[in-house]
Design a protein that fits this description.
This protein is of the alpha+beta class. The protein has three domains: 112 residues; 105 residues, Serine Threonine Protein Phosphatase 5, Tetratricopeptide repeat; 109 residues. The strands form two sheets. Strands 2, 3, 5, 6, 7 and 9 form a six-stranded antiparallel sheet that branches. α1 runs antiparallel to α3 and α8 packs antiparallel against α9. The longest helix is centred in the first third of the chain and has 54 residues. It is elongated, with a radius of gyration of 44 Å. The relative contact order is 0.06.
């Protein structure tokens, strides 16, 4: 901050100079004015003296005229180098008062509207904190300076959890979710903070948060880990094993958390065996399979041709617009029942099972283009794990 205040002080000095220089110039102008007035008075006195001498007959008319001319020349010689007064007569008090008020007003306005706190925070964050308490203090100041920063709130919540302050963390994560939207990761962190703030007692709000998080992202790691912990504490050991196996599948090899998870799975398995039960081994996730019956609205039968292409596909409700799985038939095949699965994936890295929620679409395209056609039918968003057969009617113009 020292460099900043030095620069601000220099700028204030420059501003003051614009106010004080006219005052100094005004003094000089006043001195010139006083000198000119004195010269005029002396000239008038000299002329009066010459006139008296002329009236008394001491000087002739010619001598009197020469005396007046000489006095006039002397007056002009004394005043010809004087600088004309070009400055407004503001007086001394007003410029001096302005010179005093300008820095005070500038300081007040900066303290009110400026960002000195953010400048200080930036310089402070440039140095590594010496302790967790110092880091939390910095984050609290950063959030106070930028209360609408969801990122700052997220990191503050994580810091509170590291300090074992879950109640404070829950409030911060709730604010972050309100700013950034109900993102799965934020919901999982919020649920975890509420769980520990409630002395590890599972509640309906916590269940709702984890359900919402996993619906949007079935691989959300915090929710999976928390559900496993809650199941273990509630002696639902098989559920704990299932959740932790799902979480284990998301972690890369070499992750330090894998050993702790595997230890938890082993303890849960031992608990099951001690109770006379055998743990169910982890199974590979079932491939998504969506069954759909596609029909053409009766009002459109005279507006299409039998050999017009019909594209039936599923796409992510939230995510990339391209189809995840697709099949092609013709209008002559309608009504038709098809099944879309991971085997019909357009790209190996983007399968139906990779997205929690999808939308079914059927499009009639005379030109045979899957992205543009004449008529279309859409379903409401549905889970990619839906087992019940769906019904889709092509009944609307394709925009």
């Amino acid at each position: 901050m020292t460099d900043f205040w030095l620069a601000a002080g220099l700028l204030l000095l420059v501003a003051l100079s614009f106010l004080l220089i006219p005052v100094l110039r005004g003094r000089r102008a006043q001195q010139e004015e006083d000198r000119t007035a004195l010269n005029v008075a002396l000239y008038q006195e000299r002329v009066a003296e010459l006139q008296t001498q002329g009236d008394e007959g001491v000087l002739t008319a010619e001598q009197l005229a020469r005396g007046r001319d000489e006095a006039a020349r002397e007056l002009l010689a004394d005043t010809e180098h004087a600088e004309p007064d070009r400055f407004a007569r503001l007086g001394k008090p007003l410029p001096l008062l302005a010179a005093l008020l300008v820095p005070l007003m500038a300081l007040g306005l900066y303290l009110h509207f400026g960002a000195s706190d953010k400048v200080a925070l930036t310089q402070e964050f440039a140095q590594a904190p010496q302790s967790m308490d110092e880091m939390v203090t910095r984050l609290e100041r950063a959030v106070a300076a930028q209360p609408d920063s969801a990122e700052g709130l997220y990191f503050l919540g994580r810091a509170y959890m590291a300090q074992e302050r879950p109640a404070d963390a829950a409030k911060v994560f709730e604010r972050a979710a309100g700013l950034a939207g109900r993102q799965p990761e934020l919901l999982g962190q919020w649920a975890q903070a509420l769980y520990f703030a409630n002395n590890k007692q599972w509640t309906a709000p916590i269940q709702a948060l984890t359900d919402e998080a996993l619906k949007a992202d079935p691989k959300e790691v915090t929710s999976l880990g928390l559900l496993g912990i809650a199941a273990f504490e509630g002696e639902r050991y098989q559920d704990a094993i299932d959740y932790w196996n799902r979480l284990l599948a998301q972690l890369p090899e070499g992750d330090t958390s894998r050993a702790a998870l595997q230890g938890g799975i082993e303890r849960a398995s031992e608990k099951l065996k001690a109770g006379g039960e055998q743990p169910v081994p982890a199974q590979a996730p079932l491939a998504a399979r969506l069954k759909v019956r596609v029909e053409l609205a009766a009002a459109l039968k005279d507006k299409v041709k039998a050999d017009d292409s019909v594209f039936i596909f599923a796409r992510a409700s939230v995510g990339p617009p391209m189809p995840l799985a697709a099949k092609r038939v013709t209008v002559a095949d309608l009504p038709v029942e098809v099944e879309l699965s991971d085997a019909d994936a357009m790209m190996p890295s983007m399968k139906l099972s990779s997205f929690a929620e999808v939308q079914l679409v059927a499009r009639v395209s005379r030109a045979g283009q899957p992205t543009k056609g004449e008529w279309i039918g859409r379903s409401s968003p549905l889970a990619s794990s839906t087992q019940a057969a769906q019904h889709l009617i092509i009944d609307s113009p394709d925009p």
